[in-house]
TrEMBL record:
Organism from which the protein derives: Nocardia colli
Gene3D superfamilies xref list: 1.50.10.20
Upper taxonomic lineage: Bacteria, Bacillati, Actinomycetota, Actinomycetes, Mycobacteriales
Pfam families in UniProt: Glyco_hydro_76 (PF03663)
Protein name: Fructose-bisphosphate aldolase
Keyword Signal annotated: yes
InterPro entries (UniProt xref): 6-hairpin_glycosidase_sf, Glyco_hydro_76, MUG_Protein, O_gly_hydro, TAT_signal
Amino acid sequence: MDRRDKGISRRNVLVAAGASVVLTALAEPAQALTITRKVSPGPDDPGQRAALAEQAIVQRHVRTLWGRPQMRLGTLYWPGTWLDQSFVKWCYWWQAHLLDCAVDAAHRARTPERIERVVALARGIRVRNLTGWTNRYYDDMSWLVLALERADRLLGVRFSEAVDDLGADLVGGWNPEIGAVPWRIDDEYYSTSAIGPAGIAMARLGNLSRARELADFLETRLRDNDTGLIFDGIHEPGGRVDRTALTYCQGVAIGLQTELAIRTGESAHRRRAAALVAAVGDRMTDRGVIAAASGDDSGLFMGILARYLAEAALALGDTTAANIVHASARAAWQHRAEVDGLPLFGMDWRRPVTVPAPPGTFPQLMYSSAASSGNLSRDLSVQLSGWMLLEADYQLVAAGR
């Protein structure tokens, strides 16, 4: 079924937002829930573990948007201040990944509640964005169109207008002189974080020629010949390369090469994907576990890499990719903390989540530096990475990989 906009005016949105801020400010403070490292063994089944990660984020972060039950978003922090819960501050690309994880969950175990959540999150993004589905950042728009395309393909939940608008903006952002899409509109930085997901989106939407060109750009302009990894980006004109190598940049490059290997049958893309997976295994894992990130935006980096490693394992039979996902999932689960029986993941899956000194209740951490110290994080991004990882692990196990 196609879900179209219902004539939502900006005036109505702003009135609802103002009312929400007032009501949220008057709400009762969050209950003091104790964080503990004395975790239960929990289920062995990967699907049940993914379901618990889903439940944790839904309970802690997912809220109605401005009093509209049919629209939802995820608060950026938990526990959150009244300002956080009113969605005055938000992050487009975090919400796109929340939507993508909700699609994963509904595909794992379809229920009316999960389908309704996918629809409500998509509508929430559209309304909170105020100006439509698009924004100025090509990486942001790529993440959202990927989530919406998967919702259609895997669940039959269709937002055709959104996919058309976002896809048109990605194609419109093409710079023929450079042969790529920049990080944002009218920018001179061509980042892997935009080129990779834009290429995957173009491939899935049928524009294989552009997707090939983007894959070639990453391979010829941004690949480090010494390590085999993909650099962060390049400034054009001038050709100044940012030589930082980040986990999610490798993830989207693997995803793009995998997508093209599937859709074109060309062996070059399969070889490139395998080489990138091998480089990640050599240089971005510790005993097979994906290297740590930090909070804020980088909290999503590990999960994005896990998602596209799983795709390479499923589509190309890459056992190294599968092994990294499995090892990372075991480590993240083993080292989690618990709040009210639900998992809380750290920024480093290789070591236990730091638990503060007694009494260790989360609301006390809302205004404390302890909330972001060590391996403890309030960020939605970090928890989404954990959820994304466990969904990827489930997909591999379900497929016998």
